[in-house]
Amino acid sequence: MNQGRKFHLDFKKYGMVIALVVITALFQWLTEGVLLAPMNISKLLMQNGYILILAIGMLPIILTGDIDLSVGSVVALVGAVTSKLLVGEARMPVALGIAIGLLVGILIGIWHGFWIAYVKVPAFIATLAGMLFFRGLTLVITQGKTIGPYPDAYQYIAQAYLPDVGGASQIHLTTILIGAALIVVFLITQLQKRRREISYGFAVSGSGVYTLKLVVMAGLIAFATYWFTRFKGAPVILLILGLLTFVYSFVTEKTVLGRHIYALGGNERATALSGIKTKRVKFMTFVNMGLLAAFAGIVYSARINCANPTAGDGFELDAIAACYIGGASASGGVGRISGAIVGGLVMGVLNNGMSIIGVGTDWQKSIKGLVLLAAVVFDIVNQTKKK
Amino acid sequence: MTKVLLEIQNIVKEFPGVRALDNVNIKVREKTIHALVGENGAGKSTLMKVLSGVHPHGTYEGKIIWDGGECRFRDIRESEKKGIVIIHQELALIPQLSIMENLFLGNEQQKKGVIDWEKCRFEAIRLMELVGLKEKPETLINQIGVGKQQLVEIAKALAKKVRLLILDEPTAALNEEESERLLNLILRLRDDHGMTGIIISHKLAEVTKVADDITVLRDGSTVETLFAASDLITEERIIQGMVGRELTNLYPSRDSEIGEVRFEIRDWVVYSEEYKDKIMIDHINMKIKRGEVVGIAGLMGAGRTEFAMSVFGRSFGSRVQGIVVKDGTEINVSTVSSAIENGIAYLTEDRKALGLLLQESIKGNISLPSLHKLARKGVVNQNEEIKVAEEYIERLGIKAPGIFQTTNNLSGGNQQKVLLARWIYADPDLLILDEPTRGIDVGAKYEIYHIINELAAQGKCILVISSELPEVLGTSDRIYVMNEGRIAGEFTREEATQEKIMKSILQSNRRN
């Protein structure tokens, strides 16, 4: 019953990864090597981190067939709140300020989730209302002014690099340790997975191919680690993004909750008739989005080192575009966290690469629009070919 | 013999990996009704798509001869221009538009792009009279029932000056009275207007009633054509051609071992969702014993599905009253999850809308309600899940390339088996099966009856809702007859006959 898992390239699954590689290679050439310079990679991650965080929150919502248009405004509002708490007279402890910021996000998520899941207001409308409402609140709180600068500890998340435990030496030891740990964890989980599959009697790929796969992956991690050590080490935001990607991939793909999210997007009524509390699942995706939007707000305000009443304008569209470019389906039920990350990176590389070679923001927007269209067309063509 | 209007010659149609049509030959005589029968996946729908130009010329081999000349349709418009109109199972009407607007959709009564509403109205009234619709032309489609919508579709075909009308499962969603009316209309159009028809149907009784000629398809090839004028046509004779063997017994026999009463539903009352004062289910009392198959018979609209869904976690209706007792104690069925926890499962009649996740694999569809069983601390054991799915594919004989196959590509019978696997794996004590064999072929039906018997033999309680009386009679140990939200009668297997059941329905009608 199990046909031997032969190696063949699944274009639907890896199409965007290939596109990312091609686009990166193209700009690496156009920018004469600047794009992939260690310093520029760190910068690229810092510039796009908050979009990626938003995309991670947006994907579960898109999976259930909904959408959240308010996240850009939430980013601004949370920035405004933390600036009020941390800048000027108040001077609260930074950790407390961040905690309150995140709490605001959760409350916003509850607000949206309540209207959408329980009162059945269409998500498009409820979050459109939220987009206006929270943008307005931001203006009220900031009184239309830019507030900053933040204390140093606050900026740490978005701008800093991992501290070097090695101290004096030239080599960035923390980064190397993390890289080594990653390789070990990767190898152990892969080997365990294979052992379990064999114990269930499933066909697995031949040991030669398997070893090659492990070596290539471990090599990639090792190389990435080495690359970051060439400039100040890995940025903090990379660690955060890595962690979020891992956790949310795990939750969406391996847990009961994750499976319920996919099922809900596939067929809401059938899912409800299977005893799944669909309203609660929907509610949870919005609460989660609120939390991550708040987190993105903190990262963003920390990066630009001020709260700005127009902050986050259009972020919701970037986050949604990242999900779609990464293969999510507009009708729900299809998409992956890793896809959303790849989609976000495609846009990030385009932005960054075009900036380096001197393409203006006007053209950057147009080109991003075309890329979004192309990605979705690619998806549709792929699907009709399958039929 | 009358003139041959349409001849299909040696049609071969291949999809990647599958030969859907393999040398199909059919002659349709003018002014006759030609029935096309065959199991699911026999190629009926594909053939109609070739004929109507959905699969354009060049994508298939063979010839279509229409009225003496060869046709090479590039799309539906071209076939419609010749007078070939197909009415699909899923009706192509716009619910928010009026009957009149739908009638002339794509065929607008216009002068230089401006719609002539007077002519439109005049024509609409004429066409509606022809098919026996008494509504106002301005009535919206979503305000009339499926039966009348079907008539609108036919009127729409007539507006296009149809010469050959193709009906794909026209009565699948209709009750007996509506079906009867529709079939009579088709006969009348043949006799009075010289229309030719092709009807695709699983209901052999109606095929024998209306068809002049019957062509049987099996595995993409034509097996035989029977002529009502010269051949003796019975349902058994048709089934023999469809399955290639003589099916002596449609319902597998079973020695039922019936135990004590396990489930009892008392004074069950449900009100309508839209109109909170309208009573839908009126004080129903029902008992189901261990190892017993209980049937619920009744016409469409009798409230059987509504009753079952309201018991299954109040999935239907409002202001639900009454209690469900299991093994002597009352159980909570106020939500679907609590109903499942208390051992109730409901297999829906509408498997595409309410049952399957069509984009999801067979595996994911089977495990959906039982993921918590496969999980530890919220993390699904995917290896175990694969094992379970493999096991059920084997056990229920689901024909698919593998458990990762998405369910939208499966035939109706296999889709139904996937849903059965879902609920059998959930391990309920009471399994409610709502129209378990709707729209699936004879062979798969037999297998499903067999599964029902196996479950009963394991001591499960089974409740079968079916609109096909022979099915209720053939599977059940005991039968409740429902009508207009009430129990109209109760019969044991020995007592029950089709006549008695119909009589109890009619009598309860008269009392009102």
Automatic annotation (TrEMBL), chain A:
Record Pfam families: BPD_transp_2
Keyword Lyase belongs to the record: no
Keywords, comma-separated and alphabetical: Cell inner membrane, Cell membrane, Membrane, Sugar transport, Transmembrane, Transmembrane helix, Transport
Annotated localization: Cell membrane
Record membrane topology: Multi-pass membrane protein
Molecular functions (GO terms): transmembrane transporter activity
UniProt main location, coarse: membrane
Residue stretches spanning the membrane: 14-37, 44-63, 94-118, 171-189, 210-228, 234-251, 283-302
Assigned GO CC terms: plasma membrane
InterPro entries, per database record: ABC_transp_permease
Domain of life: Bacteria
Described function: Part of the binding-protein-dependent transport system for D-xylose. Probably responsible for the translocation of the substrate across the membrane.
NCBIfam families membership: GguB
Name of the molecule in the record: Xylose transport system permease protein XylH
Lineage: Bacteria, Bacillati, Bacillota, Clostridia, Eubacteriales
Automatic annotation (TrEMBL), chain B:
InterPro entries: AAA+_ATPase, ABC_carbohydrate_import_ATPase, ABC_transporter-like_ATP-bd, ABC_transporter-like_CS, L-arabinose_ABC_transporter, P-loop_NTPase
Stored Pfam families: ABC_tran
Domain (ABC transporter): residue spans on this chain: 6-244, 265-509
Annotated GO MF terms: ATP binding; ATP hydrolysis activity
Keywords, comma-separated and alphabetical: ATP-binding, Cell membrane, Membrane, Nucleotide-binding, Repeat, Sugar transport, Translocase, Transport
Superkingdom of the organism of origin: Bacteria
Protein name according to UniProt: Monosaccharide ABC transporter ATP-binding protein, CUT2 family (TC 3.A.1.2.-)
Organism: Lactonifactor longoviformis DSM 17459
